[in-house]
Amino acid sequence: MSRSRRSSLRLKEHVKKLITNPDPDPDQEIETVRAIPIDGEEGGEYRVVFGVGAFTEPQIQMLETLSDRTLTIQDLLEDSLDARRPTLDPSWVLKHGIPGHLRPTKIQYVPVYSFLDRAGRVAPDGNFDYSGLDPIIQSLAEREIKVMDSIVNRFERVVSGVFGTPSELMAADLRLYSKLELLPLLAEESTSNLEEFRVILSSLVKDGHDELNGYNSSNLKRAVCQYERLALASKRSKHADEAVRP
Question: Hey, where are the domains in the chain?
Answer without folding.
Answer: 73-142, 149-244
